[in-house]
């Protein structure tokens, strides 16, 4: 074999702490290496051209590039060697940047380590075989999980692009957090007027099927061919017939449980439609509080329903669909502020969250758009806003910035002045973070035109005095302590990962980060892809985001899906397991072990049972290879011999010279 | 870092591509300084790691072997790390029987976002191996010597490498 080795300087990223020419010289002493050089940027156009030229000039049949992580540029260099006429699997990478130059300080030790990593790559390459990918067809259907604004955008874009879309929403209606908002920054336009038409489009688009009150039960398969099981939860209302007239909602005598859509500001009837613009506009019964379902009598809703669609016997339903790609848009939840003792831990009814305030401001909210104190229903005059409640605070394990709280607080001070002209808003803040088009101008307007008083400092405590709440905090710019008598305190609660996101991630094989937000494939270059092919992210499930960013990401995810499904066939990774029938004893252990059902039993011409791998189903994990007692099934590109060759390159056999 | 002041020891790492290799990359991108003893072998999944690889490394004179995969329930291949966990736990209990100090082998879980955790794992494991020192060697000069040693061991005499 004729191997060429290329040691990348990566500018000074590698060359700064690794002696690249010396590594290249050492590599020349390795078996089968006939050419070795160092290069400034292997991934640049001249760098790639130099590799191609060397393959042609030196008649190479395998290439090792020592540079950054293969998770970054392996596909790039595979295409490079392919352009030079080699099979793309006759290529190995040694990671001498992330694993060497960026973590080790000593140039000597780094250089030695780099040379050894190159040696491992050479030994593996010597045992590589050319592999040819297989092709398979994809299901032209998309699953969108979550019906918030990001999911809505992704679904509409996919549907407009001609794909069939299945949207699954956990709640009774789509719209997500945005549907709860009164107005949006920085334009102060009505949230439901912007979102409403898009929600209607979801309901009416011929390519979109919506399952509300539904969750993902199970996910199987792989890119292009996922098998999804959806659990449609019992609503005790036959949605085919329900017209959403709302008669049952009016008559329901049980109003015990707090209304989740209205952020627990009021109680909801047991049979309910969350809000007038709900999509689907169908009633659903809450089994926890319904008198008929808990005590077995009542049934008033069934009596008044003009189309007789109430069904107390309804059960959960499982629906199976096949899809080619999945968009995850499960959004976020609000931080539970009760962890903070200084804000009263819930003892004072007039300390509320920003989302509760939003519902108060909304004309479709429980108070019809009139701001009232929860304690006595009076109109507040002094409203204090506290920022960074559950953001940028290590003490509650939320060190990240939620990003949108500064902006919505500014919006809420403006709305407060609009609703109550003789009111005064105070904002306790740490820093104002308002990067975005027209964002900073908007905050300045809140201060200058609407007279919101911004106080830079944290709040130490809130305590009641008469019918007021005294907010005591620091003013770090004036260097004093301040006390503000407040009628209402609004906490700008931060975003955290949605409840159940981690469990959903397990089903989808998408890893969450330490705070429960899903991890994208690359923080800069692959912001909507995940490490699982065919699964894409949109919106705040990947990290806190405001509406424009969520919508952009929804569209970005849709464009990725459309790109994927526009191909008639996909190429499968040929680095899959392969059975050597001569060694296979037909024990079937691999068949039981395979998590993807990619191995089947066949018979050879003598009628003996043998294992056979279905190429396009195999995902290349190699669990079967370890399970096989005969070493008969080998994962291509990661065979036992290849890994042992790497081990031997690192630790030469000691017992006897002729041990191998 | 005391580990860097002395001679490097031979530590072999087997990392799954999706979580721990990514975690090691994250540590690199974040410039989290680590001891340089570790050499990483990339495998698709911790379920691909045959205990044979680890035993072979140790037999060949590795001073330590570190295995890392995705956190349980987070496997890119759904259940590969469950297989890995069983196999590696069995191996860990079995190693003393072969005469290899089980402290020279460790397995752990590091996700792709846990760069800091990876730095901690590598630093701690390297420190442990340096405390244990180089693995005892077994270097008979010839096959005849080996046979003599084998006979001695068969007669219940102490093995030269494990005292």
Automatic annotation (TrEMBL), chain B:
Keywords: Iron, Iron-sulfur, Metal-binding, Oxidoreductase. InterPro entries: MvhD/FlpD (IPR003813). Residues 11-133 form the F420-non-reducing hydrogenase iron-sulfur subunit D domain. GO terms for molecular function: iron-sulfur cluster binding; metal ion binding; oxidoreductase activity. The keyword Iron applies. Coiled coil: none annotated. The keyword Plastid does not apply. This is Coenzyme F420-reducing hydrogenase, delta subunit. It comes from Desulfomicrobium norvegicum (strain DSM 1741 / NCIMB 8310) (Desulfovibrio baculatus (strain Norway 4)).
């Amino acid at each position: 074999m004729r191997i060429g080795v290329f040691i990348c300087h990566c500018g000074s990223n590698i060359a700064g702490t690794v002696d690249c020419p010396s590594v290249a010289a050492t590599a020349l002493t390795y078996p089968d290496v006939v050419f070795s050089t160092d290069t400034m940027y292997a991934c640049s156009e001249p760098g790639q051209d130099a590799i191609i030229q060397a393959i042609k000039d030196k008649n190479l049949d395998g290439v090792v590039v020592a540079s950054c992580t293969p998770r970054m540029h392996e596909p790039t260099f595979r295409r490079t060697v392919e352009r030079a006429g080699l099979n793309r699997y006759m290529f190995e990478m040694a990671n001498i940047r992330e694993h060497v130059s960026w973590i080790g300080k000593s140039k000597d030790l780094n250089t030695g380590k780099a040379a050894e990593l190159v040696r491992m790559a050479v030994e593996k390459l010597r045992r590589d075989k050319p592999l040819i990918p297989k092709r398979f067809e994809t299901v032209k259907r998309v699953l969108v999980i979550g019906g918030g604004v990001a999911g809505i955008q992704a679904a509409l874009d996919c549907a407009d692009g001609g794909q069939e879309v299945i949207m699954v929403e956990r709640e009774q209606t789509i719209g997500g957090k945005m549907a709860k908002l009164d107005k949006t920054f920085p334009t102060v336009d009505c949230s439901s007027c912007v979102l409403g038409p898009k929600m209607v489009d979801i309901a009416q688009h011929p390519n979109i099927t919506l399952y509300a009150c539904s969750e993902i039960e199970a996910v199987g398969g792989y890119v292009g061919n996922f098998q999804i099981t959806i659990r449609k939860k019992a609503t005790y209302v036959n949605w085919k017939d329900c017209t959403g007239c709302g008669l049952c909602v009016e008559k329901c005598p049980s109003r015990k449980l707090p209304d989740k859509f209205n952020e627990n500001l009021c109680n909801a009837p047991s049979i309910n439609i969350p809000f007038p613009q709900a999509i689907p506009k169908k009633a659903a019964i809450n089994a926890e509080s319904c008198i008929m379902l808990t005590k077995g009598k009542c049934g008033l809703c069934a009596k008044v329903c003009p189309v007789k669609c109430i069904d107390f016997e309804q059960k959960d339903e499982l629906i199976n669909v096949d899809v080619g790609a999945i968009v995850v848009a499960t959004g976020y939840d609000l931080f539970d502020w009760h962890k903070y003792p200084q804000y009263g831990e819930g003892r004072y009814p007039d300390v509320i969250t920003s989302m509760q305030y939003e519902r108060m401001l909304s004309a479709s909210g429980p108070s019809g758009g009139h701001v009232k104190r929860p304690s006595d229903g009076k109109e507040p005059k002094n409203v204090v806003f506290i920022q960074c409640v559950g953001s940028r605070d290590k003490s509650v394990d939320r060190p990240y910035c939620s990003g949108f709280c500064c902006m919505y607080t500014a919006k809420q001070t403006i709305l407060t002045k609009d609703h109550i002209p003789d009111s005064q808003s105070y904002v306790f803040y740490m820093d104002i973070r308002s990067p975005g088009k027209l964002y900073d101008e908007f905050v300045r307007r809140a201060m200058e035109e609407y007279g919101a008083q911004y106080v830079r400092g944290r709040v130490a405590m809130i305590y009641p005095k008469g019918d007021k709440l005294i907010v005591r905090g620091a003013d770090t710019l004036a260097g004093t302590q301040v006390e503000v008598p407040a009628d209402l305190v609004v906490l700008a609660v931060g975003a955290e990962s949605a409840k159940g996101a981690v469990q959903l991630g397990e089903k989808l094989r998408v890893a969450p980060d330490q705070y429960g937000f899903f991890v994208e494939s690359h923080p800069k270059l692959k912001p909507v892809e995940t490490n699982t092919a065919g699964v894409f992210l949109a919106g705040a499930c990947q990290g806190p985001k405001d509406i424009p960013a969520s919508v952009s990401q929804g569209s970005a995810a849709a464009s990725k899906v459309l790109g994927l499904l526009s191909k008639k066939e996909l190429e499968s990774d040929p680095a899959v397991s392969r059975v050597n029938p001569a060694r296979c004893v037909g024990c079937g252990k691999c068949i039981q072990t395979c998590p993807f059902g990619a191995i089947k039993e066949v018979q050879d011409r003598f009628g003996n049972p043998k294992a056979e791998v279905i190429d396009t189903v195999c995902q290349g994990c190699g669990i079967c290879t370890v399970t096989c007692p005969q070493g008969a099934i080998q994962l291509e590109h990661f065979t036992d011999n290849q890994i042992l060759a790497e081990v031997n390159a690192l630790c030469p056999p000691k017992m006897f010279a002729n041990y191998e | 870092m005391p580990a860097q002041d002395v001679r490097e020891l031979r530590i072999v790492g087997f990392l799954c591509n999706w979580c721990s290799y990514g975690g090691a990359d994250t540590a690199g991108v974040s410039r989290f300084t680590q001891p340089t003893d570790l050499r990483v072998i990339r495998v698709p999944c911790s379920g691909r790691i045959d205990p044979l690889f680890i035993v072979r490394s140790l037999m060949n004179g590795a001073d330590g072997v570190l295995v890392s995969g995705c956190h349980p329930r987070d496997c890119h291949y759904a259940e590969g790390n469950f297989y890995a966990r069983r196999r590696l736990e069995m191996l860990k209990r079995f190693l003393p029987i072969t005469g290899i100090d089980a402290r020279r082998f460790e397995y752990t879980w590091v996700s792709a976002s846990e760069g800091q955790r990876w730095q901690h794992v590598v630093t701690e494991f390297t420190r442990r191996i340096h405390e244990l020192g180089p693995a005892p060697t077994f270097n008979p000069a010839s096959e005849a010597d080996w046979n003599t040693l084998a006979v001695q061991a068969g007669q219940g005499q102490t093995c030269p490498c494990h005292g």
